Amino acid sequence: MNYTDINASPTTQKDRAKTMKEQPTNYTGGPSLEQRFRQYLSAFDGKKKDFSKVEHLFDALFHKDFFETTNNSQQQQTVSREQTKAMHVMYFAMGTRATLIHYRRIGLHTIDISYHLFNISYHLFNDQVDIVIRQLSSRMQNSIVRTQQVSCRKVALDNDGKQSFTINETECSAFSI
């Protein structure tokens, strides 16, 4: 059944149709934030690379006003977007590998993310270590605008493949992606 205004002239109906066509559609094309995050994390494939090859992925993922809050020596420390970028430049140069453990939306603008970083040079040990990081990220305009590190653990496996010890987040707070 067609529900048109009986009293409307054909011109009025055409004007309505034209107006409806002119209204902008809310199309949010392109990859979702989760797809961007997964794509960026997959660039950490264990091969040494120049950051300029993946900088466009960083720029698409992190909002221009991005900052991270970490706990360092029992006080909060704020890390800027440029400081984060400098860390990532170092990670790519070292050939860091990363794998996603989980990515969960837990609120309208909040994401719970956990990932594993392999072969990180750790300043307290003259060695390469593996780190598991969990953080809460706030999203805005389909990019990450803020991150709060929840935990950071150094993971070492014994011969049975079981975790032998961990280091809390205050000792490895500068590692997040």
Sum this structure up briefly:
The chain has about 180 residues and is α+β, with helices and mostly antiparallel strands. About 25% of the residues lie in helices and about 40% in strands.
List the total number of helices: 4
Helix-strand string: HHHEEHEEEEE
User: First CA to last CA: what distance?
Assistant: 56 Å
The chain-level structural class is alpha+beta
Rg value: 23 Å
User: What does the largest sheet look like?
Assistant: 7 strands, mixed
Percent of residues in helices: 25-40%
Low-confidence segments, ≥5 residues, pLDDT <50? 161-171
Task: Give the mean pLDDT.
Answer: 78
Oligomer: single chain
Strand content: 35-45%
Number of strands: 7
Question: Can you give keywords for this protein?
Answer:
alpha+beta; 4 helices; 7 strands; globular; 7-stranded mixed beta sheet; 177 residues
Structure, explained:
The protein is 25% helix and 40% strand. The chain has helices at residues 10-22, 33-43, 55-61, 81-94; strands spanning 62-72, 75-80, 97-105, 110-122, 127-140, 143-157, 163-165. Strands 1, 2, 3, 4, 5, 6 and 7 form a seven-stranded mixed β-sheet that branches. β3 and β4 form a beta hairpin. α2 packs antiparallel against α3 (55-61). The longest helix has 14 residues, at 81-94.
